[in-house]
Amino acid sequence: MSTPALVALVAIALVGIASAVIGSVGVRVARSTSDFLVASRTVGTVSNAGAISGEYLSAASFLGIAGLILREGADALWYPIAFAAGYLALVLFVAAPLRRSGAYTVPDFAEARLSSPALRRACTTCVLVIGWLYLLPQLQGAGLALTTLTTLPAWSGVAAAGVIVVLTVIGGGMRSITFVQAFQYWLKFTALAVPAVVVLGFFLSDARTFDRAAPPNFTADTTVQVRTPVVLEVAERVRLQVDGEVNGRPAHGRVTWEPGRYEVAADTSLGFVIGSAVPTVVGAPATDRAWLEPMSGSAPHQLLEIYSILVAGFLGTMGMPHVLVRFYTNPDGRAARRTTVVVLAMIGSFYMLVTFMGALSRLYTPQLLVSGQTDAAVLLVPTAVLGDGWAGWLLGGLVAAGAAAAFLATSSGLVVSLAGVVFTDLLRGRLRDFRLAALVSAIVPLPLALSVTRLDFALTVPLVFAVAASTFCPLLVLGIWWRGLTASGALAGVLVGGGLSGLAVCLTLFATVPSGWVGVLLHRPAALTVPAAFLTMVVVSMLTRAQIPPGVDGTLLRLHAPERLGLSHDRLDPQA
Amino acid sequence: MSTTGERSTGTVYEQVQASPEFADLRRRLRRFVFPMSVAFLAWYLAYVLLASYAPGFMAIKVLGNINIGLIIGLLQFVSTFAITTIYVRYANKHLDPAAEKIRQQIEGAE
């Protein structure tokens, strides 16, 4: 194994060890079930904000956003904007009332508000589906990081991430996880900020600019191994060395590609010389100038796609189980508000750094545009800029550590919140069972992560958010703000939204999706499924008006009266 | 708070629910949350609409590589943060004192 690969492995191992150590320190203070699930609601503002941000900024944010910026340019800004705005929607509409309801999972909330066992079961199923689906890209991201940085196979990264997550969660539950995740946030931030400053130094002393009506150029002789079939768009004549299959025919030796489209089969190698123009994956902006401008790519139905991503991010965040449960770790609403401001500052500055790294990666790692592995951009920029040497290797190691922190933080948060649901709804037992629940929650998605072909974060993450936006968003928003919601209406809405978005997920993961607007809606279902779920919920509730729970006014009062009134009670505490 | 259990009776709920102070508190919350959401969504969707129907405007260069589209994009982060800060200020200044007043009334009545 080469030196940079070893440095990266050591860095990743150190993150695992540091997380385990911080986690085990937390164990000594974790005594009760409440400690395990919601950290006894006694976490300080800055640690809690660090933990919330650490958990929210997943591998998809750390690796995926920069990859998107590299490929799509200005259009990729939608993703971080939607994810930051989703947090705002959560805070304005849901956070405080939910904190007051005393429930700490959506199934708990559904039962407290509408007391229907069937709805509770449907919600439990949704939490599990959303959590496991979101664990999938996290685990596969670990695999991607490991294959990119070392020569190890992807499955070893998936398996290692699974094991570390189980160990930290079983070790100390939510309370220790809070400190681990706060640590992981600062690590992620450093792992981006340091390379960003270094690369910026190189960029400023570099004569190159993005303001050209031409594609990016290779900065060195580069051989690209195409691993999955890809259609490339050539904007400027390029000479290259091919070995494999192009446009359905075997191709070997030196060829010249005129501007046009080329279908490259898997396992083809393409060799480019320094200075030649970089072909880009079809649909993405081909020239640097187009890349700087919004909506300039050639992909069809862009407006529909963007609206769908915005809806999914804006409304889906509030339905993510690991995000919601975090609001119970605040001692009261006032602290929750203070935490929120710190969190948005942390998330916002992180996304700006990622965007910046993505932009610079277009200059330094353009070969990723050819192979389609743009998600690896952040990992490869340090060595591409600093060259082979200890400076580049160490910086690469730091970024690898940040990536490891990213998928560990989100995965462990997901596993804790999933385990909370498995524990209260499926196992119903003592502390021992919580550990078993954590184990079950982490193991279920592993086979899927190992068997399904890895898709871009840009595809999988908005899909999961779309499922959350089509099920829990209408349930929470209508449940908190509309007294007319009935159990039948809520159940019908969750089933329609969950069914439609679930179907889209299955087709995207396991089948070939047709092109045109049908394909766009299958990849990005939120624009259709969210309104469908809201509409179903409202219409069915109005048809079953007789079912409105008799105590609805008392319940709504408890949700909207500030906790200083002393009307709310926590479901977990013994006196409740 | 040890009196929590005793308080959770129908009479206190009804009393608070009916009080003009509670209505005022809910009005203050709504008066902030809904206009703010509408303003934010409008600003958010304006970006998408400008990008699709006024690409020429978005492509105007301001400084070096930076065009208007990128500036508006980055401003979206700033506005998200600004709205949250304003919300927290508003809640501390207008919502908490109102809640405090209701609480004192309940305690005075007991």
From TrEMBL, chain A:
The chain crosses the membrane at residues 77-98, 118-135, 155-173, 185-204, 306-329, 341-360, 390-422, 434-453, 459-482, 489-513, 525-543. Keywords: Cell membrane, Membrane, Symport, Transmembrane, Transmembrane helix, Transport. InterPro entries: Na/Glc_symporter_sf (IPR038377), Na/solute_symporter (IPR001734), Sodium:Solute_Symporter (IPR050277). Pfam families: SSF. It is found in: Cell membrane. It is a multi-pass membrane protein. CDD domains: SLC5sbd_u4 (cd11480). The keyword Heme does not apply. The keyword Zinc does not apply. Belongs to the sodium:solute symporter (SSF) (TC 2.A.21) family. This is Cation acetate symporter. It comes from Pseudonocardia xinjiangensis. The lineage of its organism: Bacteria, Bacillati, Actinomycetota, Actinomycetes, Pseudonocardiales.
UniProtKB/TrEMBL annotation, chain B:
It comes from the Bacteria. The chain crosses the membrane at residues 32-54, 66-88. Pfam families: DUF485 (PF04341). This is DUF485 domain-containing protein. InterPro entries: DUF485 (IPR007436). Keywords: Membrane, Transmembrane, Transmembrane helix. The lineage of its organism: Bacteria, Bacillati, Actinomycetota, Actinomycetes, Pseudonocardiales. It comes from Pseudonocardia xinjiangensis.
